[in-house]
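In practice, a research group might receive sequence data for several interacting partners and want a quick structural hypothesis before committing to experiments. The following worked case mirrors that situation: the sequences arrive first, and a predicted assembly follows.
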Amino acid sequence: MPNLPPKKEIFLTGLWKDNPVLRQILGICSTLAVTNLMVNTLVMDLGLIFTVCMSSLTVSLLRKVTPLRIRMMVQTLIIASYVIIVDILIKAYLPDISEALGPYVALIITNCIIMGRCEAFARHNPPGASFIDGLGMSLGYSLVLIAIAFIREPLGFGTLLGFRVMPQGFVHWTVMIMAPGAFFTLGIMVWILKYFRPQTGEEKG
Amino acid sequence: MTKRVLSVVYMFWITLFFASLVSAVKLMNDKRIERNQTIKLQSIILRVLQIPTPEQMPEQALSRLFADRVKEIDVQGKTLYVGYEEDGRTIRGYALPVGGPGFWGPIQGMVGIAPDAAKVLGIAFIKHSETPGLGGRITESWFTDQFEDLPLFPIEGERNIFYLKPEGTSRAANELDAITGATNTSSAVETFMNRELDHFLKDLWGQIGETT
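A structural hypothesis for the assembly, expressed as tokens:
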């Protein structure tokens, strides 16, 4: 592409300006599911960062040889392969966390951010830029998830990364442990962000 | 070659490549995954039999302790584990794998039973898919510890071996605290544990003497 923005710009777009969770409202399912404990959140983030970066890189490397009409099949194949690899590695090296995350690791496959980036960016752009784009987007996703877990775990369990942070008599907010707690937290975050930094073209309503 | 054929050939090769890659990673880690699961099962069996294990025990030492103190037996097609005292002869207890439907998915656990089948030594849950922080609290020690020393007797009529009651209302030795906010998980645990324990007392317990 002749008018490819600089790498730093690509990275920041994913990380903040066009944040996949807060701006594009993608990957919500996993955002709701894993953010009640910080440890689960961090492992999910690492899994997603690896998958998005590697899938974008691979799709981009194959972009000139992949026939257009079967590109989605190829993308799904690539994404699924990387996710299964992540799942196997977590099972082998982090068995406790694999148990806590249960089916969520395998469900990284369905995270729309991955295929979204392959379709929207990686298949038109060179490998380096695609990798950076994937890194920015997945880190953007990770930051939001960490922020939500930072609110949910202390309120729901009274702990942070397993350490007690709330006073002894603190009554746990059960709703924060369940998916609705994540809905409220995420909703409030999107609202605050939109209030202070409306998306272009949205001001008129 | 037409475009269509090219697509098929391309898809074939790329699938072959990625399938091989995934298989290779799986083969390289298979042993490790299997060992993780074995170690976990062994440590749970030792725990429900109340055989003390030092904290942070290395995996090999745990497997050795397990081999020394626990024997696997087959009773009516069901695998049970017999735990022995340090002398290697006196029976310390039996570990019985239990399981049943939970609220979201199947729950699997292990119950340690005293050699005279008069009480529970300890229980642990191995696998479940209950809500973390609600039904998932069945794995927490305050819940599982309650089962220690629970008196056992075969169920007759309507009476259960044990009941799960709302927290703070349990009166008798066979009334244990349920999990607040996880009524469905609690009653599921109550149902299948009573059934499995009763099955052990009525059908399996009498057969064990013949196999050991």
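Before designing any experiment, note the following. Residues 3-48 of chain B form the longest helix (46 residues). Chain B has a mean pLDDT of 89.
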